[in-house]
């Protein structure tokens, strides 16, 4: 991490990201095997683990992709290895991208949360949920431009299969609200 003169803190994992290796790619043909062989499944698990480490610590932009990729491991295909390589390429393209914590006066601190879901977008027909939690200045609630810092995020397979997009949205929102309540309670406990 680096703290700057404006008291913001920047976290990044450039060296780690740059060290990640691409999976050996085989060209897909009509005669290509339908499922990945055990060696390729092992490689896929390794890449998912490396990208998951980045996604949970400094790169929320990779969370959905690695969640979906990890969900495909038990029935992996050669195409899943290609998708994993795309995640590695995305991570490497912006390996210097920091997660920034901006200085916010304690008395003005507020939490804002966002949730979303994508209906039946996973290979097994289940849905993906996502949430993002920010700490910001109370001025943002009045429509004024303000600093915000991402303090928590998550992208995951929703627990229940949903029959509609709205049902997925409600499920993701419920989980998001639960996390926000925990964050606020935690903050009150330490402050």
Fold and architecture overview:
There is one protein chain. It contains 5 helices and 6 strands, in the order E-E-H-H-H-H-E-E-E-E-H. The radius of gyration is 19 Å and the shape is flat. It is 40% helix and 20% strand. Strand 1 and strand 2 form a beta hairpin. The strands form 2 sheets. It has a 3-stranded antiparallel β-sheet with strand order 1-2-3, with no helix packed on it. It has a 3-stranded antiparallel β-sheet with strand order 4-5-6. Helix 2 packs antiparallel against helix 3 and helix 2 packs parallel to helix 4. It is α+β, with helices and mostly antiparallel strands and 191 residues long.
Identify the overall geometry.
flat
Q: Looking across the biggest beta sheet, what order are the strands in? A: 1-2-3
Looking at the chains present, what oligomeric state does this protein adopt? single chain
Rg estimate, integer Å: 19 Å
- Strand percentage lies at 15-25%
Q: Poorly predicted ranges (pLDDT <50, ≥5 residues)?
A: none
* Structural class assignment: alpha+beta
Order of helices and strands: EEHHHHEEEEH
Rounded mean pLDDT is 93
């Amino acid at each position: 991490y680096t703290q700057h003169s404006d008291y913001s803190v920047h976290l990044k994992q450039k060296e780690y990201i740059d060290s990640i290796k691409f999976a050996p790619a085989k060209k897909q043909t009509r005669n290509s095997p339908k499922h990945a062989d055990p060696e390729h499944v092992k490689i896929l698990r390794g890449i998912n683990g490396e990208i998951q480490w980045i996604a949970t610590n400094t790169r929320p932009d990779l969370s959905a992709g690695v969640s979906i990729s990890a969900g495909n491991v038990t029935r992996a295909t050669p195409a899943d290895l290609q998708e994993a390589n795309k995640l590695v390429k995305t991570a490497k393209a912006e390996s210097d991208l920091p997660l920034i914590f901006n200085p916010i006066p304690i008395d003005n601190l507020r939490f804002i949360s966002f949730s979303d879901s994508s209906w039946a977008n996973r290979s097994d027909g289940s849905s993906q949920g996502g949430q993002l939690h920010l700490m910001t200045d109370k001025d943002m609630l009045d429509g004024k431009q303000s600093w915000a810092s991402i303090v928590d995020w998550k992208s995951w397979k929703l627990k229940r299969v949903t029959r509609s997009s709205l049902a997925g949205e409600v499920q993701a929102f419920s989980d998001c609200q639960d996390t926000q309540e925990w964050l606020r309670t935690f903050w009150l406990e330490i402050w």
